[in-house]
Design a protein that fits this description.
By secondary structure, the chain is an alpha+beta fold. It folds into two domains: about 40 residues, no CATH class; about 130 residues, no CATH class. Helices cover about 40% and strands about 15% of the residues. It is built from seven helices and eight strands; from the N terminus they run βαββαβαββββαααα. The strands form three sheets. A three-stranded antiparallel β-sheet has the order 1-3-2. A hairpin with a 2-residue loop joins β7 and β8. α4 runs antiparallel to α5. The N and C termini lie far apart (about 45 Å). The relative contact order is 0.12.
């Protein structure tokens, strides 16, 4: 798997010609090709999302929690990337931030820390907080306070219900 721009830098021009019914490659995301026509694995989808989001990006939310062993995710890949980049797809979910954490490497992938991953997951899906937060507290040894701190430092939109739930645990 590679960025088309990287292939062109190394002399492979018109990479798109290798994609499709006649070629041995497939386009996974804009500017990202896989060197196979097989359905991409979860790890390949994660890698493609990170390549698409660019240098410094990392997995967060449910995508990171999957790699922490908390839950299995078959949905969209959720990526955190440095502020200033614009990516406009629904899958992967690419969020830009001014406060990019130091990544934790797990299974070869850069991830946000567990508290940030939980905060990002419950911010995008408020309904999962009553299930996800107690599980994360038990399995990942995070605290409601550490999750609340992540919510405090992130975007405030969509956080009223998760905040209310976290306060109820104190």
């Amino acid at each position: 798997m590679a960025r088309v721009s990287d292939l062109e830098t190394h002399g492979v021009h018109n990479a798109w010609r290798h994609c499709g019914p006649e070629g041995p490659w497939q386009r996974l995301l804009p500017g990202i090709v896989a060197f196979t026509t097989e359905r991409p694995t979860r790890d390949q989808r994660r890698q493609a999302a990170l390549l698409y989001a660019g240098e410094g990006s990392m997995l967060t939310g449910r995508s990171a929690l999957d790699l922490y062993g908390l839950l299995r995710v078959e949905r969209s890949v959720h990526v955190l990337m440095p502020m200033g980049r614009r990516r406009h797809l629904s899958d992967p979910i690419c969020e830009a931030t001014r406060r990019l954490p130091t990544p934790v490497i797990r299974h070869g992938f850069p991830l946000t820390g567990p508290s940030r991953a939980v905060a990002d997951a419950i911010r995008l899906d408020n309904a999962c907080a009553p299930h996800l937060v107690p599980l994360a507290i038990r399995v990942l040894d995070v605290s409601p306070e550490s999750i609340m701190a992540e919510l405090d430092h992130g975007p405030q939109r969509l956080t009223a219900d998760p905040r209310r739930y976290l306060r109820s645990l104190s």
